Amino acid sequence: MSKIIQLNRRGILKASAGLIAAPAILRRAYAADVFKIGKVGPVTGPIAGFGEATSWVVDGLKDVIGKLPVPVEIIQKDSQSNPNRAAEVATELIEKDKVQMLLTKGTPDTVNPVSDQAELNGIPCISDDAPWQTFFFGRGGDPSKGFKYTYHAFWGLEDVIANFLDIWDKSGAAKIVGGLFANDADGNAWGDKEHGFPGPLAAAGYKLVDPGRYQPLTNDFSSQIAAFKEAGVEIVTGVMIPPDFATFWAQCAQQGFKPKVVTIGKALLFPSSVESLGDRGDGLTSEIWWSPSHPYKSSLTGQSAKDLCDAYTAGTGKPWTQPLGFAHALFEIAFDVIKRTKDLKDPEAILASIGDTQLDTIIGPISWKGGPNNPVKNVCKTPLVGGQWTKTAKGLELIITNNPQHPEIPVGGKLRTIG
Amino acid sequence: MVWFNIIIQGILVGGLYALFAAGLSLIFGVMRLVNIAHGDMIVAVAYLAFVIVKATGLHPLASLILVIPIAMVLGYALQRGILNRTLGKDILPPLLVTFGLSVIIQNGLLQIFTADNRKLQAGALETSSFPLLPGVDIGYLPLLQFIVAIGVIAGLQYLFYKTALGRAFRATSDDAETALLMGLDKRRVYAWAMALCFAVIAIAGIFLGVRTNFDPAIGPGRLIFGFEAVIIGGLGNLWGTLIGGVILGVAQGIGAQINPGAQELAGHLVFLMVLAFRPTGLFPRMQG
What we know:
heterodimer, A: alpha/beta, Rossmann fold, four-stranded parallel beta sheet, 15 strands, 41% helix, globular
């Protein structure tokens, strides 16, 4: 009697274990068929401009996705412009959605937390659209070791400095530069005495007037303007968010300060920010990561940079933005990796494929094999040029005026001083 | 001369803070409601003005003719439809509701207008100035903003102490139950107060939009100075709010002159000092 009960109990235990395990097995079988990619980016919040183009890009790649060797599902999550939220949704993608690869882009506030989660959980992750120093050193990277699971493509601070110096050299303005660095991650990196602007500027013979870090979203730049006027500043530079630059630029006019060259990072990236300045947007200079005149083509659709921009404008009714190319390129790299990986269930195999990448994308050549474009492991540099917002019949357009590091990217006009 | 310039510019910035704060002060004074969504409402009105300016080609300041009435209707409806239902003995529910409104307004604006930066174009007014003294230039826009702030506060002051509506506001604020016995329906009084608050919000929103770029998420960041101006000046005192704004603007200007990093810190320190030594503000009209 007791024997039968025992048997029964075992049987029940076995059966129920099977039942409990069934969904997991089913899930695994499903996962084997569909390769899941998680994408984290800012769709809402203050840095949403960086994530705006991504969902349009994904929609446009439906046909391409259909032709991949395995079915691919892309799950997009919004970081809400918040680093904590970015880490949270990345974890959710890894643990709940069981994604096998993560993609992320749009400032260090998005890229760093997502990459950290990927590294921690052993999920291959590809990112772009954040200066490489913040990706690498900002996450405590050691150049001799690098990271295992996270790979990144973007330019660095040295490229910004090279382009800005080229703009100023060619402008003929007096070599006295006023610096406006915000008290945030970017401002502190750019204004840093050791790794930022001060060293290279001094080496190039420029005098930097840096009144100190200001708080973002300040309402008054009177003291900076007074300091610049007194020092005879003819060039203004810095890294600012658009509302701060708008406040500063209006106050410059009100308080009679007229610099000849104004080269600002971040604030002048998006057409909407510059258009909002009206005629006073004409002549401002900025870094350019990507534009319709970049001589690159998509490895997925064969579109040129200009084709992609035109399609975006036709599809959304909005002018092209620089993150557009980087959003597209992220999927170029990911799909290339999928095509080359034999066993997609093995993260190590995926990593090996990422490491072997040698791809000409719409943002330029991408490779992490240790060439001249790889300053450290896991980082591939993309080309950076300088340009000027110029009033044309169609409105304000960003024209490339300086290409000291990348002569293959054509200039579209000559640099002018303001006023 | 540098210091004189800094103080003058600080006073003018204070006018902007006072405009942000006047509506807050008004609503707190009448119904003890701390409106967390005040900054978002200012941004929402800036978008409303943006749409009207785009559609009609009006100058942003001229668009006030349309924006103020529309904003007042919205304010009245908001109070009657939502906020009145939450007001009671407990001060927490209305606070939470305005917090929710803040989230809804931000994301609603994001859905409609995207994350793009916008600005209201006021042409030459934005950038022209006149020299007061050598080295001290006064922009017409900050000056106008300051004069409008004084005008708004004088107007509200007159309305509060010289008109029947103001008497209704004060009576309801002092003792809503007794006012009700005298035939003053507090729900309607509150709705009128909110409509009035939205008229001030409309003016603040347009000056914000002319002054600098705005995007859906910018409201809360701009609001903190409004809160501080109200506290420094003393709860419920409108002129105190203006003086609070000016003190904040000047303190920030002086802080920035010492070190730009100390700009906001100096304002916050003044605010903390007021809280520590005069918790009711410099010119309190009522007790918490």
